[in-house]
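Q: Hi! First time doing this. I have a protein sequence and I read that you can turn it into a structure. Is that right? Here it is:
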Amino acid sequence: MSKLGYIPNQAARTLITNKTLTIGLIQKSSAPEIRQNPFNSDVLNGINQACNVRGYSTRMTVSENSGDLYHEVKTMIQSKSVDGFILLYSLKDDPIEHLLNEFKVPYLIVGKSLNYENIIHIDNDNIDAAYQLTQYLYHLGHRHILFLQESGHYAVTEDRSVGFKQYCDDVKISNDCVVIKSMNDLRDFIKQYCIDASHMPSVIITSDVMLNMQLLNVLYEYQLRIPEDIQTATFNTSFLTENATPSQTSVNINPDVLGFTAGNTIIDVLRNETISFREKLISTQIVERVSTTKI
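A: Yes, that's right. Below is the predicted 3D structure, encoded as structure tokens:
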């Protein structure tokens, strides 16, 4: 049939098998700052590579707010437009995950499993990743380290904060940790900690690369040079961290591997194949660039 150029009719196959061969991908929001985050695009690339090899397609949610997202996912479930889901974030008491559990839809999580036992999840050890990054900075000579984290009670952010604080506590240095809710918040805190303060931090860690990009803009506005006046580091090595001015030291969390593993695993679940794990941790590595140096 391949010699004749035959292409199977997916609609007909769906009617016969009651399977769509489609995976639903649920992102926490489709707002520009989420869509344009390189972590999301790299994870999605990994998922789509796995699905393409195994004959599956994907369907992404497009809602920007939580209420619309809830109704969008519920419609996808009730219309049976997908066979299963990958949840691309991890949130305590998440109404979306409660919905998936209520309808008993196959799903797994890219991130931590916070709400139900025995849910398959693919993640990094973000506590250890932050611990290792803070240790690396300490060995460069830093003793006053500021940690900036994005708002929202998402597991990945909370775990990175925990790892930072754990290392600071272990070596008995201050563990200043600030939640940033807006660009104005960021400007105010940088003014407070780096302009008005008598003793500014020697390095700032951001919990996410998008927050890191905003930080670089604010430091530029205040004419603070990196790494001469202050140093910076973040998570998720990407095109942005490599091509920032200056290039940013970062933790490579291997989002393409996270996505590829998640894509293959959800297909295995749908095919009733044996899964040998409930949690799979993808390794991380520190990538040293111009933004940090020994002091």
